[in-house]
Specification:
445 residues; alpha+beta; two-stranded antiparallel sheet; elongated
Length: 445
């Protein structure tokens, strides 16, 4: 069963609006009398400056509505796109894990070989994920997420994290002999710990604790690492609580021995992660499962989509209010030009042409406001995005500034909706003008 999406509806509206505009403009070529009369009615005269002012206000209403709608949709698109990019900095497109407790994959070399041969897979690597407690030689300690990754920073890297290093890289080269390896920390975590490249931090993992028979309790094992690198992703959680180290060092830290947490996978098309995950599950069989980045963040992106739809509908009401301004403007024009309309009818002008005079005015107001609003929306959105003019709290919103990304389809949908409204708004005033009786209109005061 074929389902009609919002995008399909918007495409239909755009086609309908385009056809309507072409019909109106084609039937009112510059050489025609009705177009000349419509343009003259829109110009200001000494006796009807109020009508001209109201026309400007009507155009301004359409402009503001279109501009606001373009910017709001751009902000929602920018939030979705920026969050997706930030999430995929550390998180791969897919993670191959096992069912059950412990998240432990013992036969990972064989699984990795199968994953790398799968269709659509560009790269794959084992990873270790655990938690720990870190301090830098003073009383302050911080809970962190410890990630063990391969040292490869070239084309086989699964994530884009190597591009976000401000100091050092994923090779974790140490310069000291009294440590168990090198680690990379986020810039915010480094600032809180006052631990920078060359400094030593102490880490303890609950999973690596050893049972002491004399005490009858688990005693944590402390490990010392040298800070060899720093990264800044722009994602608050990553920069504030992630520690990276070599995969073999993370295996020892987590007490996994030769096992890993799972396999991380980079795909050629991230948008098909769910489909690729199902194919991998079918190929590997039980007890393996694939967890894609869309499933992990489904609630977040679902909320953003719903918010985008809601905000779009709310701001769209501004365009509807602007349509009422157009109706009011044309109604006042009809009232102001009643005698002139009666004279034109008495001279033999067809009622259909009278109707097209005011229909042309409405379409002209709508088109002018739509073009100005779209241009201003694109300009303001680009200015806000490039200049990072609106900072926001990254600890709450994950990102440090308000991003704006104008989607061409969204912009076309806004233009189409505005043109449709501009085409429908002048119908009632134009019909009322065409129904005037010549004698009554000429005698109108």
């Amino acid at each position: 069963m074929m389902s009609v999406t919002v995008l399909d509806i918007l495409k239909g509206l755009f086609v309908a609006a385009t056809v309507a505009a072409i019909v109106v403009l084609a039937t009112n070529w510059p050489g025609r009398l009705d177009l000349r009369v419509a343009m003259r009615y829109l110009r200001s005269r000494r006796s009807s400056r109020l009508i001209s002012l109201i026309t400007v206000i009507a155009v301004g209403g359409v402009t503001i509505g279109v501009m606001a709608l373009v910017i709001v949709l751009g902000v929602m698109n920018g939030m979705q796109n920026d969050l997706r990019e930030k999430i995929l900095v550390v998180n791969p497109h897919l993670r191959v894990l096992t069912y059950g407790e412990g998240l432990r994959l013992d036969d990972w070399p064989e699984v990795l070989a199968k994953v790398r041969r799968a269709q659509g897979v560009e790269a794959g690597a084992p990873f270790v994920m655990t938690q720990g407690l870190v301090s830098a030689g003073h009383d302050y300690a911080e809970g962190v997420m410890v990630i063990g990754v391969e040292s490869d920073t070239g084309r086989r890297a699964v994530t884009s994290l190597p591009h976000y290093f401000t100091k050092g890289d994923l090779t974790f080269r140490t310069t000291r002999s009294d440590v168990e390896g090198g680690v990379a920390v986020g810039t915010r975590l480094a600032s809180k710990l006052s631990a920078y490249p060359g400094d030593v931090i102490t880490m303890v993992a609950p999973a690596g604790s050893q049972f002491n028979r004399s005490l009858g309790a688990f005693v944590p094992k402390y490990r010392r690492y040298e800070v060899t690198g720093m990264f800044e992703t722009g994602m608050y959680d990553y920069d504030n609580s992630y520690v990276l180290m070599r995969r073999d060092a993370a295996q020892d830290f987590a007490g996994l021995g030769g096992a890993v947490t799972g396999i991380e996978v980079r795909l050629a098309d991230p948008e098909r992660a769910t489909e690729a995950g199902k194919q991998l599950e079918s190929m590997l069989g039980y007890p393996y499962r694939a967890l894609d980045w869309q499933l992990q963040n489904r609630s977040l992106f679902s909320a953003l989509k719903l918010e985008k739809l809601t905000m779009g509908l709310v701001v769209f009401l501004i365009c509807v209010v602007a349509a009422f301004n157009v109706v009011g403007t044309l109604t006042m024009v009809v009232r102001d030009k009643t005698r002139e309309i009666g004279i034109l009818l008495a001279m033999g002008m067809h009622r259909g042409r009278i109707r097209r005079v005011f229909l042309t005015q409405g379409v002209f107001i709508g088109l002018t406001g739509t073009v100005l609003g779209a241009v201003l929306g694109l300009f303001v959105g680009s200015l806000v995005n490039r200049g990072h003019l609106i900072p926001i709290d990254p600890s709450i919103y994950f990102i440090d500034h308000l991003p704006v990304l104008i989607n061409p389809l969204d912009a076309l949908a806004v233009v189409a909706a505005s043109i449709v409204i501009a085409t429908l708004a002048p119908l009632y005033p134009s019909v009322q003008a065409a129904r005037l009786e010549p004698v009554t209109a000429i005698r109108y005061e």
